[in-house]
Amino acid sequence: MIDLTVYQQTLETAAAHTRNRSVRIPTIAQMRDPGLVPPQVKTDLGEIGLWDLHPLNLFRITWHNQPVPQGGGFGPVNYVEWPSELTGVDARIISLIGKWFPTGAHKVGAAFGCLVPRLVTGQFNPATQKAVWPSTGNYCRGGAYDSNLLGCESVAILPEGMSRERFDWLRTVAGEIIKTPGSESNVKEIFDKCNELARSGEDLVIFNQFDEFGNYLWHVSVTGPAIEEVLAGVMREGDRFRGFSVTTGSAGTIAAGDYLKDRFPGSVIAGGEAIQCPTMLFNGFGEHRIEGIGDKHIPWVHNVKNTDLVIGLDDEASVSLVRLFNEEVGREYLSSRGVGDETLDNLPLLGISGAANLLSAIKLAKYYEMTDTDLVVTIATDSMDMYQSRLHELSEDRGTFTTHDAVAAYHRHLLGTSLEHVHELGYYDRKRIHNLKYYTWVEQQGKTYEEIQAQWYDEGYWKSIAALSDPIDRLIGEFNRLTGLG
């Protein structure tokens, strides 16, 4: 799973390289609780922009950043609670906000979770090796960012159909960009490119978010506790946390649900996907427009046995909602329906997948007939900063967004969201989905039959990954002492 074998000679070379760049590695505990960050680091961050290519911004890989682009410190977890005037349900729906991470998306944390165990064990040498980041968008941006701060070469791999903003930014940070055919649904093409690079003889390490358990670990250790912290602050007497609902891209974020289910027995975990590519729902395939989520396979790091529902989402709903939320006519109509100014100001915090996640939470609340004492949490991975070009494209393709369009989007896709394509999973439903891993990972990608069986039958398998955060933090501490920056 996560190999913590230490290779001392390479470790010393990696530490020397890191020391020369004055890079101090934050611990997982510090990402979970920035109160543990050294005071001098907090002071120095006051002069650094959130997206700056500065090594101290590794300490900003946390949900606790002040929501400002320049010189912010740490504060409460960034979240928004959406009112019923917007959602159409009585349940309280909360989105954690990913915009206030470096790169503008929380995937920079998942990239860190995959990179750092290799770095602090000497399994990756930033002085000599390239870091390869296969992705459907934000993960490769996070990986390229982390790599840049470490001073190592990076290769970002993502589908050619992703938004222009992603490519524009990557050109300023990544060493190399490889565009694979298709869009977010075309994950196998990304894997094929990774395998081609692995056979090339180049000295590189592939950090594949779809099978690297550092992705799972980061979300169990950091995102899960962040959600728990928000709940502790907003739950009233008699309230209940009922569920966590997110679309499954690499299936890293959904791992936070494992943490929450342990803390809130009886809560559920829902995984969303586009009905245009219904892999979990129908073992199906296709192509969709919810950027940043991957399909046509089940990620190796998805603990399917702990997933309670699958929620199908029409990609047209997400596309229509980002127009409703960001076009002036749409915002005016929402205001006329009682949506307040503060909520209107927060709507651009939802990117396309953030809108899809909001819809999945609404459908979850409707399915269980939740009331105003019930809470559902989801994630806004990124914001509309990454999709302004999509708004322009939609206007060119469909014409100006009108009041009639706003009425249709609001009443059809928010108030009219139905229970269609919501499937509650029984034991054999879960096993059916889990078994799909075999065709991708055992037959194609070299995983073992024994491990896919262990993922299903070994009750300690997933908990053993979650238990690695403290051992990794000890290795991070030793690495920082080796660099002289601890």
Radius of gyration: 21 Å
Span between termini: 27 Å
Mean pLDDT, to the nearest integer, reads: 95
Question: SS-based structural class?
Answer: alpha/beta
Number of helices: 22
* Shape verdict: globular
Structure characterization notes:
The chain is α/β, with parallel strands linked by helices and 486 residues long. The chain is built from 22 helices and 11 strands. It has helices at residues 8-20, 28-32, 39-45, 84-87, 107-119, 138-150, 164-170, 187-198, 213-234, 256-263, 279-282, 315-326, 328-336, 341-346, 352-367, 388-398, 403-414, 427-435, 437-442, 449-457, 461-466, 469-483, and strands at 79-82, 92-97, 130-134, 154-159, 176-180, 204-206, 240-247, 268-274, 309-313, 374-380, 422-424. The strands form 2 sheets. The chain has a 7-stranded mixed sheet with strand order 1-2-10-7-8-9-11, sandwiched between helices. A 4-stranded parallel sheet has the order 5-4-3-6, sandwiched between helices. 52% of the residues are buried. The model has no long low-confidence stretch (mean pLDDT 95).
List the keywords:
12% strand, 486 residues, seven-stranded mixed sheet, single chain, 22 helices
Question: TL;DR of this structure?
Answer:
The protein is α/β, with parallel strands linked by helices and 486 residues long. It is 45% helix and 12% strand.
SSE inventory with pairings:
Blueprint: H1 8-20, H2 28-32, H3 39-45, E1 79-82, H4 84-87, E2 92-97, H5 107-119, E3 130-134, H6 138-150, E4 154-159, H7 164-170, E5 176-180, H8 187-198, E6 204-206, H9 213-234, E7 240-247, H10 256-263, E8 268-274, H11 279-282, E9 309-313, H12 315-326, H13 328-336, H14 341-346, H15 352-367, E10 374-380, H16 388-398, H17 403-414, E11 422-424, H18 427-435, H19 437-442, H20 449-457, H21 461-466, H22 469-483
Parallel strand pairs: 2-10, 3-4, 3-6, 4-5, 7-8, 7-10, 8-9
Antiparallel strand pairs: 1-2, 9-11
